[in-house]
């Protein structure tokens, strides 16, 4: 028995009903090229591109047309490493869109005069498995898990004990 053939219709190239959304260009693609030996994986995150090596998120690549202040390479790090990383990356700073406080994420700004050199140096550190760059993201919570967490909070437990609803600890 022969297979049925699919009807291949050609659509006019200028017909707006059949336009295909173009994929966005990869921001700062040279960074991915520099760490390609580690087989990085990418995932969209916050309109940017998150870069993972193994189970760690190491970078976020950002290049937005509007709100350009935080464009560049975001380093996944922690506050305790900021000073030592700043010695290597003098133009590194906190990310403005994350609020006024200091966060673990730090930015190598795209508008800095040494941006490409700094980004490539960060790639060298990632390849060398420098402990200052990279975080294992927390597990995602299932929907409704916030309710379970709230029920286990110490404040709720004390309230429940006062109301005689929870057994006392042995």
Class based on secondary structure composition and strand pairing: alpha+beta
Major beta-sheet overview: 6 strands, antiparallel
Helix content: 25-40%
User: What's the overall geometry?
Assistant: globular
Main-sheet strand order equals: 1-2-3-4-6-5
DSSP E strands, number: 6
The rounded distance between the terminal residues' Cα atoms is 75 Å
Mean residue pLDDT? 80
Poorly predicted tracts of residues: 145-153, 155-163
- Helical element count? 5
- Element order: H for helix, E for strand: HEEEEHEEHHH
Radius of gyration: 24 Å
Q: What percentage of the residues does DSSP assign to strands (E)? A: 15-25%
Looking at this protein, list some descriptive labels.
single chain, 5 helices, 18% strand, globular
